[in-house]
Write a structure and sequence with these properties.
alpha+beta; two-stranded antiparallel ribbon; single chain; elongated
Length: 122
């Protein structure tokens, strides 16, 4: 894997892709933790890339005055962290849904086999 410092061309795609390579430390405690280490010289590029790819806005519509905008109360850094949590959640949800569908299908086939086991065609 090339060092993150070499990522200059196609910055956004490569930086976002590198976020996916996450070290997960799983222990016997109630929670696992993971850390993403980003070199200081590109941390702003990473945050800006995540913000851009996920639709962050520096200013948002003022809830009290829809004609005007206000500074976004969520910082880009907080937004980027939230998007990482969302990415993890979305992947776990997809996995769980896939496993549930697989289990349900297998059970339906087993049930259908049991129901039709004694059918005799002459």
């Amino acid at each position: 894997m090339r060092p993150l410092q070499q990522i200059k061309e196609n910055k956004m795609k490569k930086i976002i892709a590198s976020i996916l390579f996450v070290w997960v430390v799983v222990g016997y405690a109630n929670a696992a933790s993971y850390t993403i280490t980003i070199p200081d010289n590109i941390v702003n590029d990473v945050i800006d890339g995540i913000a851009f790819q996920n639709g962050y806005k520096d200013n948002i519509q003022d809830p009290d005055d829809p004609i005007n905008t206000i500074p976004n109360p969520e910082s880009k850094t907080a937004f980027a962290k939230r998007m990482n949590r969302k990415w993890i959640r979305d992947n776990v949800r997809a996995w769980e849904a896939n496993q549930s569908q697989k289990t349900a299908r297998e059970q339906a086939i087993t049930d259908a086999d049991a129901k039709t086991e004694t059918i005799d065609v002459r």
